[in-house]
Amino acid sequence: VFGRVTSGMDVVRRIHGGETEGQRLVEPVVVSSIRRQGGRPPRTALDEARRRLDAWVEGSAIPG
Description:
Blueprint: H1 9-17, E1 20-21, E2 24-25, H2 45-59
Antiparallel strand pairs: 1-2
């Protein structure tokens, strides 16, 4: 995951400094909200279905 924290660095510091057991925090830190700013909107299920259909059609085309 790539991103930039624009507020809430205290939460990041709690996650970074928390005691771990394996790869998990002993005491979970709750991220109560996130927001996407700018960039490309997330793909919908319809977008993904259209992408798969287009790929299938291209792969099954008869050479001319």
